[in-house]
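FIELD: query
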Amino acid sequence: MPVDTLADLLGREMTPTALEEAAQLAAGLSDGDLVGLVERLPAARASVLLQTLDEGRALAVFASLDAPHQAVLVDALQESYAVGLFVAMDPDDQVSLLDELSPDLAEHFLAQLDPRARALTSLVRAYPRQSIGRRMSPEVVSVPMTDSVDEALARVRLRLQDAETVYTLPVVDEGRVLVGVLGLRRLLATDPDTPVAEIMRPVESAVVTEDAERTARRFLDRKLLGMPIVDADHRLVGIVTVDDALVITEEADSQDHARQGGTEALGRPYLSTAVGDLVRSRIVWLLVLAVSAALTVQVLEIFEATLTEVVVLALFIPLLTGTGGNTGNQAATTITRALALGDVTPRDISRVLLREARVGALLGALLGSLAFLVAGAVYGVQIGLVIGLTLLSVCTIAATVGGAMPIIAQKLRADPAVFSNPFISTFTDATGLVVYFLIARAVLQL
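FIELD: result
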């Protein structure tokens, strides 16, 4: 395949002939193929590939990469070439890249912009990191409500080259206060002399300091093409488009999924991530979970005498801890997702606890009944009863705790995904064992 051929070629010594051949192969590939190839190649080879492309395609490929990956390539590219790519990017994309660079290099890149571009980029950079203002484009085409349709179209034509989008047009008053929104289709279909104020519609907007992820999910839920961003006085300051919203939610989902698995999101493609970075993304979580798992060891030590008297109890420990952990993980994942989508808020915690307790009890009753029949037939009725009652209890506790933890995290202004599945598994392991041995002592009269 051409992609594989180009990858092999880039792995060889780059003579002038090889560079020319690489440029010809790259010219025949789509931007998507080139992005995928850059993501898989080591930084040195990827930088060579970028420099074989014409300026427009190189910018399109570079801008499609995650900001951490862009920063790695900046180190591998010639400085003048990297600066050229940076200067040609949109202000919001420039800010994302600047966040990944060292402070000195970021200031150097920022100094290369002309005064107008530097002002726009600095404006976006001034907002809090997790805010939607950090992800908006300040290059927005607005239409005064006093304009006619013909005048509005003239404004759009003047800004076609530098505007983030012209499909969604915010309508403002003389003080730049947002009063409505207008779609390009409606504008084109209306008589040229019609006042804009007569055809604009109510606007869905966001305040510049709102959380980026929540805003993006609300944006996508409303199925919008663009959302105007306003300041505290409702003055228009920028716009977010559907591609921005998709990137924000993809980043948030990647981080949540990674943390639920006990690691940190890489922020760049796996094959282009250094082994040291892979280790760093996992080691802290492993250390935390190892310390947490010590609780389980302590529980086993406390009930060592019980295990000595009835050795068969040890056989069911993996079943019980695994079932409890899985039940808690299911509940936590469901509620974390519901929080992200706005289906659940912290005020709903009592309803969530009640629902998850009921779900856990029903799951525990079903699994416990099955375990009672199987374990009772093999090891006796008393052992079967211990296992059945433990599953009922563990599933109820795990589902309730798993549903509560993400909500508690959000109330504490923490990321719900931090209360991730490994933490819940460790908690349910320890509490499940305590419940198990207490039930065993009561039923078996130990």
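FIELD: remark
The mean pLDDT is 86.
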